[in-house]
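Dear support,

I submitted the protein below through the web form. The confirmation email said the job was done, but the results page showed an empty box. After a refresh the structure appeared. I'm attaching both so you can tell me whether what I see now is the final result or a partial one.
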Amino acid sequence: MFCMSGLKRKINNYVRALEKLNQGLVRYDGRDDLARDGVIQRFEFTFELVWKAQKVLFEIEGLIGLNSPKSVLREAYAANIIEDELVWLNMLKDRNLTSHIYDETTAVEISRRIQYEYLGAFQVLKQKLENRLRDNLDAE
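What the results page shows now:
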């Protein structure tokens, strides 16, 4: 079982990863393969941190047994923590693609989605997680 300090640490790690992802996107001009690959790797890392942070949040709130990213995302949508389930499920699909296969065309498409869809979803979730953490700390 995790405690509130563990959740806070997970959320802080997510926030730092999101900042690094944003920095990578600022540097990526759409042409530099190495910068694109860095953005994709930072996306993978950010995604891993956020679904695991949400899992810990649910455990603290008494919801046990969510052991996969998909189950956590579905519960997060049901709990109104994420707003667009389809975006997050697509994000999961893209994370799985980038983790297991490398294809230039796919990498370009995913990097565009990271920039124009996923970054915004990550930022909205950041605020919601920070608010949820604050609410849980106030309830202690």
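Response: this is the final, complete result; the empty box was a page-load delay. Helices lie at 4-27, 33-60, 69-78, 85-100, 104-139.
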